[in-house]
Write a structure and sequence with these properties.
The complex is a heterodimer. Chain A is mainly alpha-helical. Chain A has 13 helices and no strands. In chain A, α7 packs parallel to α13 and α9 runs antiparallel to α13. Chain B is of the alpha+beta class. Chain B has a domain of about 90 residues: Alpha-Beta Plaits, CATH 3.30.70. Chain B has two helices and seven strands. In chain B, the strands form three sheets. Chain B has a three-stranded antiparallel β-sheet with strand order 2-5-7, with no helix packed on it. A two-stranded antiparallel ribbon of chain B has the order 1-6. Chain B has a two-stranded antiparallel sheet with strand order 3-4. Classes of the chains: A mainly alpha, B alpha+beta. The interface between A and B is medium-sized, with 16 and 17 residues.
Chain lengths: ~350, ~160
């Protein structure tokens, strides 16, 4: 945003003579518009991509009709359908919470975009507590999920909400521990600082944290935990359709449901982008740096999420808790201790 | 303790194995057929819609008797001596006038048993399979062209479903 402000004041004549609040407001509005565009467009592409990947992994073709070429407009058509659907609120539901829940879930994912370092200067705000901010703000989604489960006044929705809460709270600990193993050697919570610490090295990728012994395992731990945090298969028991209809969004339809889907895909992107920032060198790349490299890395991680989804079956609740508390958590503690020992040395 | 680490190793390894399989399938040719654009070319002798070349039908009624679900309805009357003789394409003289030859394809079980006894081979199954209709009545295929000359004898008359209005 600072870069945008500088760009505006350098290139737009008379920009400096504007009122000072307005000078700062304009870059803010522009940056948030960019974020909204990303949030609106990414799920459209990602849902289509997921359907295609899913189909081809099952030797099918996926959507082929809408829009002509390989059904490229399928998600747009689905979005329009959801927009035109009747807005249903169950009569026994808590109306206020019911309406608020999708927005809270969505806000949690959306707000995380603030600290994603798309490029050396392409970042909405380089907070000096960036990583902590992401961890904190993405937990907001849990509140929204429980809210949705409770407000629906539906046993399946409530079960889904409770499961989601239990799952996300448990998996947050290993995820944060895995993030700590990166924060300790860098010595900063700012996402830009972490990316800069990964510059250079052998072939321009040698300093990426995924190629260093302790953080490589930490990446695995983080990735597994992040899968659970965004409720993706094999950890998608909060919306396990075979047992819970659709989990916390059972009673939602139309645009409110679309917001849950939007939030899910934005969250998928956010956790992948954080993974790319912390472990895959962010916008650093031996060939071309900047936003393109960052997006490619994030999208590659999102692809792995698709890939895992169509490979693995869903875990049982107790297995899920086993993986978190008995495998990932001890592993992440050991990793933090090792990372600390390496940093002190 | 050994078991614990073995389990972790094994789970990671098996996940990778599974991912390898799905990766292979990602590049396997899809087996989907885009139906209205592409169609199966059925073999020549597929058992689909029935067709009766009524000009060759001698009205023997063997198909009616063979049909296990009784979906063929036939009414015939004797051609009189003073009418000009007619022959089927294989030379069999046609002594009966077929005034009704209806097949209800909604009842047909596609067993093909009716076509074997046909002496003039006029009743055949065609490879045509796209004959869905909006009304069930439209499944009643009427092949007879001749109008009855003599009043129908009640004993030979088979009940027919009402035609579509």
């Amino acid at each position: 945003m600072e870069a945008l402000l500088k760009l505006l004041s350098d290139n737009v004549a008379g920009y400096g003579s504007l009122a000072s609040p307005l000078q700062y407001l304009l870059p803010m509005v522009l940056a948030s518009l960019c974020c909204i565009a990303l949030v609106a467009l990414f799920p459209i592409v990602a849902v289509y991509a997921e359907r295609k990947v899913a189909a081809h992994m099952q030797d099918r073709l996926g959507p082929m009709r809408v829009g002509g070429w390989h059904g490229w407009a399928q998600t747009i058509a689905d979005g329009i359908k959801l927009l035109l659907k009747e807005d249903i609120i169950p009569s026994e539901a808590d109306r206020v919470l019911f309406k608020l829940a999708p927005l809270v879930v969505f806000a949690g994912g959306f707000a995380s975009l603030v600290v994603l370092p798309f490029g050396a200067s392409v970042i909405v705000s380089d907070l000096n507590i960036g990583v902590l901010y992401v961890v904190a703000i993405s937990s907001l989604g849990v509140v929204g999920i429980i809210m949705a489960g409770w407000a629906s006044n539906n046993k399946y929705a409530l079960f889904g909400g409770m499961r989601a809460a239990a799952q996300i709270v448990s998996y947050e600990i290993p995820a944060v521990m895995a993030i700590l193993t990166v924060v300790i050697p860098v010595g900063s919570l700012s996402t830009q600082e972490i990316v800069r610490a990964q510059e250079g090295g052998w072939l321009g990728i040698g300093n990426w944290f995924i190629f260093k012994p302790v953080t490589a395992v930490a990446f695995l731990v983080y990735y597994l935990a992040s899968l659970a945090e965004v409720n993706r298969t094999p950890f998608d028991i909060p919306e396990a359709e075979s047992e819970l209809v659709a989990g916390y969004h059972t009673e939602y339809s139309g645009m409110r449901f679309a917001f849950f889907m939007l939030a899910e895909y934005v969250n998928m992107f956010v956790v992948s982008a954080i993974g790319a920032t912390l472990f895959l060198g962010g916008w650093n790349s031996p060939v071309f740096g900047g936003p393109v490299a960052f997006m490619l890395k994030s999208v590659a991680l999102v692809f792995v999420q698709f890939w895992l989804r169509w490979t693995l079956p869903r875990l049982r609740v107790d297995q899920l808790m086993y993986v978190s508390w008995k495998v990932l958590l001890p592993a992440s503690f050991v990793l933090v201790i090792l990372a600390g020992a390496l940093a002190v040395r | 303790m050994k078991e614990y680490f073995r389990d972790i190793f094994q789970s990671i390894w098996t996940v990778l194995l599974g991912m390898k399989i799905t990766w292979k399938h990602l590049f396997t040719r899809a087996c989907t057929m885009q139906y209205p654009d592409q169609r199966w070319v059925l073999p020549e002798r597929s058992r689909m819609r029935l067709f009766n070349k009524i000009e060759d039908c001698i009205g023997c009624g063997q198909c009616v008797r063979a049909c296990p679900v009784d979906c063929i309805y036939m009414t015939t009357e004797k051609r009189t001596k003073d009418e000009a003789p007619v022959f089927a394409s294989d030379g069999t003289p046609i002594k009966l006038r077929v005034t009704q030859f209806d097949i209800d394809m909604s009842l047909c079980c596609y067993c093909n048993l009716c076509t074997y006894p046909c002496p003039t081979h006029c009743l055949v199954m065609t490879p045509e399979y796209e004959f869905a209709v909006y009304s069930k009545q439209d499944f009643l295929y009427r092949f007879a062209k001749d109008k009855p000359v003599a009043p129908p004898k009640p004993a030979h008359h088979t009940p027919v479903p009402e035609p579509a209005k």
